Amino acid sequence: MDRESTAIENSQKQIGNKTNSRFQFAHWQFFNDKDELWNTQTHSVSKLEPQVARLLTLLITQQGQVITKHMLNSQLWPDTIVEANSLYQLLTKLRKELQDSAKNPLYIKTIPKKGYMFLPEVSLIDIPERPFPNTSNVATAEVLSQQAKTTLSSQIQQLLTKKRCWALTLSTGACFSAIAFFSSTPDDISTPHYEREDITYELGVEFNVTAHAQYDLLAYIEQFNVLKITDKTGKYQHTRQFDTRIAHPTWHPDKKQLAFWQYQGDKCILHVINDEAKTLHSSVPIPCYLIRPPVWQSDNELVLTIIEKTGHNAYLYRIEQQQLVKIPLPKATDEKYVGAIRAWEEQIYYLITDTEHNSRLVSLDGKVHMTWDFPVWLFNFDPDKQSIVSNDDSAHHNLIGKLRNGQTYPIFATSQGMFSNLSIDQRGDIYTAAETWQVNIRDQDNLPIFSSSSNDFLPVTNNLGETVFMSRRTGQCEIYLHSNNQLKQLSFHKGYELVSFLAWDPQLSKILSNRDKNLVLYDREDVIVSFDSQHNKMPTQFGWLDQQNIWSSDTQFVHTFNLDGNLLSRTKFASDFLTFDSERQNWIVLHGNALHLSQSLANFDVHKQPLIELPEHAVHMIKNPRLVNGELYWQSTWSKTDIIWKLPLSAPNKLTKIRQEPLIWHYDITPDGALRVAKMESVEADIKRITPQLPST
């Protein structure tokens, strides 16, 4: 390791010892635990992209020193090939946020042929006695700006003498320190700090961990189809291997029984075994797309969360009777059910997310027991603190706890990868799988044109070789264009909106996408127009009719529009798989398992021409149709394995399975017909224990 790398690493470690590091320079305050940049003059806050925030942290920790381009690249994109202008783009974004000028810099000075220097003096801000509840509290900036500050170098020296938090090895983030409460009600807890330790170390993928509340038992999935039962130190006890993927083991709260799922074709089987991995019960196969962890309601009953074609549904499953009963959830039709947990008073509670992306925990009678002003997807109950542990609202999905009185407290932070599930025993020890990965869109030389820890790419390449795609690396779904070896961000929206499709127009001058229920048109620079699709739910299929008209479908109705957003037609037509061949002016429609061609949807039965009857595994969870050079491509999923198909329209009997493997997020077809896959690579997942450490008195 060279001297520059050593200096940066030492600074990073020293900063890591100060949890929730918050820096002051000029009239700016940077909270690197939240990727937030505060302007104390305007009382405004910006949520930085993770890589922009990491760049600012690197510059701050080397204040007054020249840091080379090579070192910045190696720190920002370790072991990754990136475009030559990637660093320049990050610097441009950071300078824009700081209102800085490259020619007359106040903050970031370019040192020709050497690198960059961060100019202003930097100091660390002491953590306030009461943390601010959310980023909308602009008064916090005023409070913080008045606090006493010391220079960064002297503060770091003081930190070296203090007890260290365990650094989270998969990121530059560090664990949160203990801080004051949000309220002083009798339900408040003495907030501990948490320390992390590894339970598994071996190479491979270990995830979906569950800890028994009472007994010294742990279970987790290894390499997708192996169930491991160990003690809570990771010492091996029993193993079961299956021929298809398994998921989401959950211990009975009192007995040494374990329930878990197995994917089998287009269905899921619920298994119950004992602590010696011997089968006690297996359900009949249940139709499913995806599933979430089962929840034990009693010795004979479990609450099951099953993602089906119609959405997320909750069921009560009775083991002895093998009976499945749908649970009527207290939610509106346009709200999303996420999952269930067993919590206070050993009762079952259900997590609901509304159309504004707020979450609430409810009982079956509709009573609201807890709310969050962001989407919660990772959650479990801490019986020791009587709190709900969940993801926070950051792009990094840090762990936080929340009591019923509204008090929240930080648990653990990470700036890379994510915690994929949670299990908490009676002591309050949190067991989780910490996963990191890289998703690459690879070019014809198998080099990544874009790499990220995001999993939402959906790349679409036109005949000029330009690729438009989406990514959640900023925490929101954004649209990017890769053209002439340069990467450009086209959308700059904030919020939790979804992007489910992208398509070039026939003349390759515009790009069509969606954002929630809106349709959005882009050119190569920015958004041209955005308008309401007028569907009752988010459109899932869409495309171009010709250069001046577009269509969209929510699987029940097909709407057509001109480019000004004026609705031209509304046709009731149900189909889960629909696309339009603008060159031949034909619809391609899946009805049942059969593909058809038709010139009209309004008179489909009159005009339809059968193409091919597809096998079951080609239509299960079918999505993402692409029509390239007269050949139809799409994705399906079977036994939780991803499959990419190709069908020449001129020879529909030549259906081909061109790729089959797990963890394919999306795919792309190049102008010459070559397959590109946006695939999860370099996957690492280990079981961690995060243990509360109450401060000594």
UniProtKB/TrEMBL annotation:
The keyword DNA-binding applies. Residues 20-120 form the OmpR/PhoB-type domain. It comes from the Bacteria. GO terms for biological process: phosphorelay signal transduction system; regulation of DNA-templated transcription. Residues 20-120 bind DNA. Keywords: DNA-binding. SMART domains: Trans_reg_C. InterPro entries: 6-blade_b-propeller_TolB-like (IPR011042), OmpR/PhoB-type_DNA-bd (IPR001867), Sig_transdc_resp-reg_C-effctor (IPR016032), WH-like_DNA-bd_sf (IPR036388). One of its GO terms (molecular function) is DNA binding. This is OmpR/PhoB-type domain-containing protein.
